[in-house]
Amino acid sequence: MAATYSKVTVLGAGTMGAGIAQVCAQAGSTVVLQDVTQEFADRGMERIRAFLQKGADKGKVTAEDQAATLGRLTTETDRAQACEGAGLVIEAVPENLGLKNGIFRELADVVGGDCVLASNTSSLALSKVFDGVSGPGRCIGMHFFNPVPVMALLELVRTDATSAATIEQVQGYAQELGKEPILVKDSPGFASSRLGVCLGLEAIRMVEADVASPEDIDKAMVLGYRHPMGPLKLTDLVGLDVRLAIADYLRAELDHPGFEAPALMRQMVADGKLGKKSGQGFYTW
């Protein structure tokens, strides 16, 4: 069966962008992975090749599917050219409102009028991400989770302007990607980040107050509440700097003291203890 979108363009070839490009290609779409330099785009492709090979080594991906997926993927550095003819453009660039809004303002008049414009933002208000973008009915949030090829959830975020047709079409494509979509109203932090960050911050406060070790706090949530991963290990995986930025944003937007970042978190970020990507956070990686 043909994919809902025959061509998908993913903007940003980092961890999230590469994962999104992979699952779209696995679903049968032709995918262009775009980044500002060929070096960044090539790194994204290497991430995809490595993830597919890992799946093949475990017997979860056949050699045929691996080759077919890679055959549907190309890279590009020119943003407008990458988006030419796309039915869906998914933005996965850093969490910078000005950057995201500028990209969508630039592309809105480059792509076709029926091309869906989607942002992978985990917390920024989509009303601001898509501010001034023509055709607001085609704009939607598609918040994927890391690692994208493994995580089942896809949080779809609708603005007041998102059309019912766009929502229905993207929900269908989410299922083609093998994801379980949920639909959330545009609100700071949406559903997942608002709850997840709040839990993570409280866990950090517990470490700060010497309530228990990071290992035991995480074990409490894994064994007691059946979370697949504890909040501190998850914070390490996401990145303390990333979660700190989201916490500060939610604190300002929601005016809620529960999102006040602990001093320990700020100190760890200042010391470069960002989690897995730096080799040290609440755990040694």
Number of domains: 2
The percent range for helix content is 40-55%
Characterize the biggest β-sheet: 8 strands, mixed
**Quaternary structure type:** single chain
Q: Strand percentage, roughly?
A: 5-15%
Extract low-pLDDT stretches.
Answer: none
Known CATH architecture of the largest domain: 3-Layer(aba) Sandwich
Computed structural class? alpha/beta
Number of helices: 12
C-alpha termini separation: 42 Å
Let me know the CATH homologous superfamily of the largest domain: NAD(P)-binding Rossmann-like Domain
Would you list the SSEs in sequence order as H and E?
A: EHEHHEHEHEHEEHEHHHHH
Radius of gyration: 19 Å
User: Looking at the structure, what is the overall shape?
Assistant: globular
Order of strands, widest sheet: 3-2-1-4-5-6-7-8
Q: What is the class of the largest domain in the CATH system?
A: Alpha Beta
CATH-derived topology of the largest domain: Rossmann fold
Mind explaining what this structure looks like?
With 285 residues, the chain is of the alpha/beta class. It has two domains: 7-185, Rossmann fold (3-Layer(aba) Sandwich), CATH 3.40.50.720; 193-275, N-(1-d-carboxylethyl)-l-norvaline Dehydrogenase, domain 2 (Orthogonal Bundle). 47% of the residues lie in helices and 14% in strands. It has twelve helices and eight strands. The chain has helices at residues 15-26, 38-57, 63-71, 79-83, 97-107, 126-129, 164-176, 192-208, 214-224, 231-238, 240-254, 263-270, and strands at 7-11, 30-34, 73-76, 88-91, 116-119, 139-143, 153-158, 180-185. The protein has an eight-stranded mixed β-sheet, with helices on both faces. Helix 1 links the parallel strand 1 and strand 2. Helix 1 crosses helix 2 (38-57), helix 8 crosses helix 10 and helix 8 (192-208) packs across helix 11 (240-254). The longest helix is centred in the first third of the chain and has 20 residues, at 38-57. It starts with 6 loop residues before the first strand and ends in a 15-residue tail after the last helix.
